[in-house]
UniProtKB/TrEMBL annotation:
Its main location: membrane. It holds the Pfam family Prominin. GO terms for biological process: camera-type eye photoreceptor cell differentiation; photoreceptor cell maintenance. GO terms for cellular component: apical plasma membrane; cell surface; cilium; microvillus membrane; prominosome. Keywords: Glycoprotein, Membrane, Transmembrane, Transmembrane helix. GO terms for molecular function: cholesterol binding. This is Prominin-1. It is a multi-pass membrane protein. It is found in: Cell projection, Microvillus membrane. Residues 647-657 have a biased composition (Low complexity). The chain crosses the membrane at residues 214-243, 264-288, 582-602. It comes from Crotalus adamanteus.
């Protein structure tokens, strides 16, 4: 049997623990994974806050220097434009234009006004002082020890395992005993012995059978020879009579060949009368035998009415309703018929199902384990385990998550950061402004004012080249703006409903912890029941296979049906009866046809044989020759003999006769 390998006490604990672990894992792992993801988000948030703080400080430092430089050059331009030289009428308008454009010499991206993220960074650093990932990994490890905990706590139920093993082992022993109890081997052995005895019996009487078969063959040959002899006489008579017939010869002057033909015909008639009683008696006997066997056995065998006759209640035994079940099962009330057995054997079913042997020994009772299943269920019902030692996340870890949720990340003004990042460094292109300033200076008269304005233009170009260009194109500042942009977007994404996310993670962990603490016993009972159902399912499959094998595959009885078909249909009906019926039908047909043959032979013999006296023809139309289809001799046509005389062999009349010549046409 295959059950012991499934029911090792050690394996039961580990297997049940693994199944409980798999079942609880559907709830535990998603909760722990969410907490672990949140721990990773805390680390990423810290890195993002540090990047924001560092990049913001760097950009603030660069823009602060630029702002100072632009303010200085603006003050210098104001001082120059306040000079008395700008009061002249021809330059006043130009100076006013320059004075009005000074408000454009300012920075555009003012990082100094952005609020810092140091408060949030401080809170996140406080959160990270506790290693949340380590606490979660401890939860993973504790939960992964579930199989061992279950194995340790199910030792009290493992005592039921040997009992369950014994139940299934007893079933297996019953199956083995049942297979030994089946008398199939004994039946086959007895049948083999019976066949051997039959073979020996046939071999003992086979010479006698061959001898009587020779007599049968000889008798049939004699009968056929009788018929052939008669036919030979008739054919020789027709042949000789037809070939030797002379239409000009008188009955007394017919030739030897014609006379021989007539004698042959009469010989055939004689032998017909001698043999006809033997032939007809043979036909009657063979007809009665062959016809009855054909109708009563062969045809009824083909349409199965023979089996219906044999299945007629109380026919073969007046005290038994069903003869076959009375012989085999010792219970004539069981519906076991010849027709059903023959049909099942034709379908190649097993002897157990065909002969209804379940009435003698039922395999269904042996393989029925429903009561054992109830016993197993009662033992499994009282399984109780405690997994409260498994802690998925301690209170410290939960508090750590709550602190992260209240770290204030969602209070950062992300829109202001993104707005400043996307702005240009200065409000106006300093090179364009310097070129425009220099062009306006060229419109002024030559002098100190022109030179001063051109000097300021060069200063602005220098500020652009030394400060603006590095801020716009320098790798340090470009990377700082890019990092700041990415970090702000990451923080913005993390901060979306952060407190709700944290509470959701904590709620999932607490719900899973409650499931482990309160429902572990229920789950272990369910999994143990599933495990036992699996074992019972294997057994049911095995029992179904045993039932099917015994019913349809073990000791199939198609050879019995083939033997019956061979004995009845082929040997008795096709070989024996068809030959016998063909024999009597042919012999009977020949015997019947002898009647017209005798009549014709007698009639023809009169006109072929040589007569001792002449026949008197009273009228040609009423003569026997006309009846047989032969014309009278020419010398008698139109002649009527009124007195019969004796004619000798030389043709002379021994007595006088008077003939009257009739001149009527023939």
């Amino acid at each position: 049997m295959f059950f012991p390998s499934f029911l090792s006490p050690t394996d039961v604990g580990i297997l049940l623990g693994s199944r409980v672990w798999e079942q609880l894992g559907k709830e535990v792992y998603p909760a722990l994974d969410a907490a672990l993801t949140m721990a990773g988000a805390i680390r990423e948030t810290k890195e993002a806050l540090e990047n924001v703080s560092g990049c913001l400080e760097m950009l603030q430092e660069g823009t602060e220097k630029l702002h100072t430089s632009l303010m200085d050059v603006t003050e210098d331009l104001i001082d120059t434009l306040n000079d008395s030289a700008c009061m002249a009428t021809q330059v006043a308008s130009t100076c006013n234009l320059i004075r009005n454009s000074l408000n454009q010499l300012i920075i555009n991206a003012n990082y100094s006004k952005l609020p810092g993220v140091n408060p949030q960074l401080v809170k996140v650093n406080e959160v990270l002082k506790i290693d949340l990932s380590n606490l979660i990994q401890k939860g993973y490890a504790a939960f992964n020890d579930t199989p061992e905990l279950v194995q340790d706590q199910t030792k009290d139920i493992l005592s039921a395992v040997p009992h369950i093993k014994n139940i299934l082992e007893n079933v297996g022993s019953n199956i083995t005993a049942f297979t030994k109890k089946l008398p199939i081997q004994k039946i086959l052995t007895d049948f083999t012995v019976y066949l051997t005895q039959c073979e020996a019996y046939v071999e003992d009487y086979f010479p006698l059978v061959e001898q009587y078969d020779f007599y049968r063959w000889l008798g049939c040959l004699i009968l056929c020879c009788m018929m052939i002899l008669i036919l030979v006489f008739f054919y020789l008579g027709l042949l000789c009579g037809t070939c030797g017939y002379d239409k000009n010869a008188t009955p007394t002057t017919r030739g030897c060949l014609s006379n021989t033909g007539g004698n042959f015909l009469m010989a055939g008639v004689t032998f017909s009368f001698l043999f006809s009683w033997v032939l007809m008696l043979t036909v009657v006997v063979t007809f009665i035998t062959g016809g009855n066997v054909e109708k009563l056995i062969c045809e009824s065998f083909h349409d199965k009415t023979l089996f219906q006759i044999l299945d007629t209640p109380y026919l073969l035994n007046r005290q038994w309703k069903n003869y076959l079940s009375g012989i085999i099962l010792k219970n004539p009330d069981i519906d076991l018929t010849f027709e059903q057995v023959y049909s099942d054997c034709k379908d190649n079913k097993g002897i157990y199902a065909t002969l209804h042997l379940e009435n003698l020994f039922s395999i269904h009772k042996i393989l029925n384990i429903s009561m054992h299943a109830e016993d197993m269920s009662l033992k499994i019902k009282y399984i109780n385990i405690n997994l409260s030692n498994i802690v998925l996340l301690s209170n410290t870890g939960k508090e750590n998550l709550l602190n992260f949720g209240s770290s204030g990340i969602n209070e950062i003004n992300f829109a202001a950061y993104l707005s400043e990042i996307n702005k240009s460094i200065t409000k106006i292109d300093l090179l364009l402004y310097a070129n425009d300033l220099e062009a306006r200076a060229d419109q002024l008269p030559k002098g100190a004012l022109e030179n001063a304005l051109k000097g300021h233009a060069n200063t602005i170009r220098l500020i652009h080249n030394q400060q603006v260009v590095p801020l716009e194109q320098g790798m340090k500042y470009v990377r700082a703006r890019s990092t700041l942009n990415q970090s702000i977007k990451l923080l913005q994404k993390t901060s979306l409903e952060l407190p709700e996310k944290v509470r959701s993670v904590i709620s999932a962990i607490e719900a899973t912890q409650l499931l482990i603490n309160n429902n572990a016993s229920f789950i272990i009972v369910q999994e143990a029941k599933k495990y036992m159902d699996t074992i019972l399912g294997y057994f049911e499959q095995y029992s179904m296979w045993v039932k099917d094998s015994i019913s349809t595959q073990v000791a199939t009885c198609k050879p019995i049906a083939n033997t019956i078909d061979t004995a009845v249909d082929i040997f008795l009906c096709s070989y024996a009866m068809d030959s016998l019926n063909a024999f009597w039908f042919g012999l009977g047909g020949c015997s019947i046809l002898l009647i017209p043959a005798i009549i014709c032979a007698v009639k023809l013999a009169k006109f072929y044989r040589r007569m001792d006296t002449e026949d008197v023809y009273d009228d040609y139309l009423h003569t026997d020759l006309y009846f047989c289809g032969f014309p009278p001799p020419p010398q008698l046509r139109g002649t009527v003999v009124t007195q019969t005389g004796t004619i000798n062999s030389s043709g002379n009349n021994s007595i006088s006769s008077r003939k009257s010549q009739l001149n009527h046409p023939v």
